[in-house]
Amino acid sequence: MKRWLFLMALTGLALAAPLPQTYDRLERVLAQVRGDNPSQALAALDQAQSLLRQEAEGLPPVLRDAALANIQEARQAVLGKSPWDLEARLLLVRHLLGKALYDGFFTAPQGEKAAYLTRLARATGLGQGVVQEAAGLPPEAARGRLEGRYLQLMAEDLAQALTATSRPQAYLALARAYARFLVIQDSPQNTLRAQDFIQALTKVSGGEAFRPEVQEIQKKVLAWREALRPGAAAPVPKPQAGTPAPPPAPSPATQAPSPPQASAPAPSPSSPLPVQESPQVETFYVASWADPALRERLRRVAYDLGFAYYQDFLEVLTQTQLQLGLATAALGQGNQGEARAHLEAAFWNFSAKIEPLAALVNPSLTERTLRALTRLTQAVGVRAIDVFPVYEALEELGRQFRTGPRETPWLDFRLSLLNLVGIPRAVFFLLAAALAFFPLYLIRLTFGGRNVYWNLLGLAFLFLLLPILAEGLSYFGSVMAEYGGLPWLAALANLSIGQGLLPYLAWGLSAFLVVALAGAGLRGIAAQFGLLKERGAEVTASGIESKPATTLTSETIVEWDEEF
Q1: Angle made by CA atoms 128, 129, 130, in degrees to the nearest 5
Q2: Using CA atoms, how far apart are residues 421 and 382, in angstroms rounded to an integer?
Q3: b/e per residue, 291-300, with b = 16+ CB within 10 A?
Q4: Which terminus of the chain has a lower count of CB atoms within 10 Å, N or C?
Q5: Where are the alpha helices (DSSP H) in 206-287?
Q6: What's the CA gap between 51 and 517, in Å, rounded?
Q7: Cα-based distances in Å from 266 to 182, 195, 244
Q8: Nearest-CA neighbor of 75 among 28, 31, 39?
Q9: Number of C-beta neighbours around residue 153 at 10 A
Q10: Element of type H or E holding 50
Q11: Cβ proximity of 214 and 174 under 8 Å
Q12: Cβ(497)–Cβ(471) under 8 Å?
């Protein structure tokens, strides 16, 4: 008993590990992410996601969610074989944890400051000289020294972006500057916005002219550095509107996508958001079914999400549906890992870019869709047919955005059934498959004699129960692949009727065999018992039906399972 209590205590300490130890574990995991080994990279990214969800107790939820979103995007970069995108995402993940370490350094007890500072240097590339210098300074002086070093590195990164010979190099340098900005974004001398970087990154990945935006960021960085000098007056930060998320960008090897919305800092709640009548807001089309107040709210939220036009929202909706289609294709091939990656990408797209707008149109359907996507990304034994209701829900949300909200009871019912996906459904089919062996045993005892017709009837019962056995075996493979450490058993999922055309045709063939065998067996049994008579024996030559003899002797009585 004491041993179990000791192990539980150790487990509790591990789950509540301080932030420096959490970063050490994450750093070791991310070191295994390499583009030349996709399977190892995906496994390491899965492990990093689990670590952030379960052990990052000292990480603020906003930073944790942003790191999880970037890890998910890194998975897509691995699958898309985009090394530039992968490196940029890992940079953002490390610097988001660096932001937490930076804040923790100034609030940690004196004996723990060194642990935060050394991890901060490793996460963001500060250099040991700056670390040693800042360790011996008072808090405000250390903050100014670290902030100045980050600004110097940002200036170097921006210069590299301007002189880069290719867009991927410019994107990576600009993403590095953006990552460093995230660490010191709360400085009172800051006049930059995350949107400044996001717009520049969007133009880099979109093939547009980006150098004017980068030069403007350079000027603000220079002014920021000047404000840090002793005696300089601190500039008054301008009020900011909500930081919009970047529009989706292509991610081949030559173009890297823009960072997700989760990485952008939220506006300060203490300062009210100014109302801006921007042309970007006015160009976002909202159908006439919405009243003026709702129309303005939709446009404001669309602007905050980075949607200048209604087509931008449709593009994100289409990209999310594309991820669901890819997940369906992967499930049909029995590739659960790739399917989960596509489902998670669809979840992040929906929760970050679609849900805020869709919730204003139809809150109940939006909530059910988000809950269904969350269930699919976490459940074991997901089948291809499970994705169809979510795909239909996205199509319905897009339609309602154009025509107005309406009731969809059948779709709501199908989405609610997805709550059973996972362990509840797997247990149901495993139990049904196990219980099916008992009637098969009784059928063998009952119809296992020498009468061929009874044997045909027994085979009909076997094919009748065969789909239940196959479904149970498919869920057994899914559960063992997920929790038993036997990934090769995931191929058994292809036996499920919910996977695609081949299992469906196999089920149809078994149903045909049930009908054929049961018909042949029952007809033979009926003939043995004299229930079927030949037409010539039923009617005499005169046309009057002859009465059969009703007398039986001991010689004519036979056992029910014997041949006549």
Answers
A1: 95
A2: 7
A3: eeeebeebbb
A4: N
A5: 211-228, 279-282
A6: 55
A7: 11, 11, 10
A8: 39
A9: 18
A10: helix 38-54
A11: yes
A12: yes
Closest CA to 350 of 339, 338, 365, 332: 365
CA–CA gap between residue 403 and residue 250 (Å, rounded)? 30
HSE (side-chain half, CA atoms, 13 Å) at 28: 6
CA atoms within 13 A on the CB side of 244: 22
- Nearest-angstrom CA–CA distance, 509 and 497: 12
Q: 544 — phi, psi (to 5°)? A: -100, 130
As given in the structure block, the two tokens for residue 172 are 């990576």
Rg (CA), the chain: 33
C-alpha angle 530/536/539, rounded to 5°? 90
CA dist 355 and 351 (Å) reads 5
- Tens digits of per-residue pLDDT, 447-477? 767 778 888 888 888 898 888 888 888 888 8
Q: How many CB atoms neighbour CB 233 within 10 A? A: 8
Model confidence band, residue 389 (pLDDT cutoffs 50, 70, 90): very high
Instruction: Please tell me the distance from the alpha carbon of residue 50 to that of residue 62, in angstroms, as a whole number.
Output: 16
Separation of alpha carbons 161 and 168, rounded Å: 10
Helix (H) / strand (E) element for 513: namely helix 501-528
pLDDT in tens, 287-336: 888 888 888 888 888 887 888 788 888 888 999 999 999 998 888 887 88
pLDDT digits (tens, 9 = 90+) for 520-545: 988 888 888 888 765 444 433 334 44
Tally: H helices and E strands in the chain: 23, 0
Write down the pTM of the prediction.
0.49
Q: What is the DSSP string of 232-243?
A: PPPPPPPP-PPP
| 339-346, long-range: CB < 8 A, 24+ apart | 339/382, 340/377, 340/382, 341/42, 341/72, 341/75, 341/76, 341/79, 343/373, 343/376, 343/377, 343/382, 343/387, 344/72, 344/75, 344/377, 345/72, 345/73, 345/75, 345/76, 346/320, 346/373, 346/390
**526-561 in b/e burial notation, b at 16+ Cβ within 10 A?**
eebeeeeeeeeeeeeeeeeeeeeeeeeeeeeeeeeb
| Residue showing tokens 């709702």 | 294
Neighbours of 314 (CB within 10 A): 14
Mean pLDDT confidence for 56-76: 81
Coil, helix or strand for 391? Answer: helix
Q: How far apart are CA 300 and CA 307, in angstroms?
A: 10
